[in-house]
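Sorry to interrupt, but I need a hand with the structure work. Go ahead and set the record down below:
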Amino acid sequence: MNDQSPNLHVYRSIWISDTHLGTPGANADKLLHFLKHTRSEYLFLVGDIVDGWQLKKRWYWPQKHNDVVQKLLRKARHWTNVVFIPGNHDEAARQYVGMTFGDIKVEAEYIHTTLDGRKLWIVHGDLFDQVIQHARWLAYVGDQAYTFLLWMNHWLNKARIVFHLPYWSLSQYLKLKVKSAVSFISAFEHVMVTETRRRGCDGIVCGHIHKPELRNIDGIIYANDGDWVESLSALVEHHDGRLELIEWQKLMRTSGSLKPSYKYALSQSKEAINILKAGLDQGA
């Protein structure tokens, strides 16, 4: 695919995180579509790319997840500077900080300078999460609850396909409605911005909380690239240094590049109907 292809989106830099490969909630097919249809000089993997927490409990690694890893390695071999910054779910990789595997550099954090001269501090963000640092058991409980929500979200959206309704995230909805969740997100953003200013940087790029955001907070750029279990989002830097937060499915619908297969949608609808029927039969 050449640079003139209308389906290829070319950027200077791309940031993605929280893909959670190794779990049923990972949208590996959509992530693979994103990787195939984007090109950049820099690609930052900002933590929780592989979910070691869940893989320790139950091994789950379908071919699509392997395809994503292979695609990342292929990008690194072909003129893309790929930097992996581990998060809490793939924290085992932190012992390899400073090393390179398959042309992918492993770093604890990274300072990136945009084309217009702004310094961005890149870090996953878990080391500034008080729950992770001081109540790790609570983080594991929260992870189990979140996994259950994603499971519910999966089947809910299969049912929505039957009624020709668009994708809707139950867990994102709850995050915005639950006061404690909103307070946690606000506190996390404040801590990250404060630390960014202390380090003398113009902005922060992080992940961790699965809440995509790009805004200016007290003169500091706060950018959270979101996740690939719900938001399907990424942060990108254009060739003039401009930053943009993109939601891949929305971008594809707008550009007309994503044309869902009727056959696929029909098969998913039939599967959802069968599941609903089975549930009704059990309840009878």
About this structure: The chain has one domain: 9-283. DSSP finds nine helices and twelve strands in the chain.
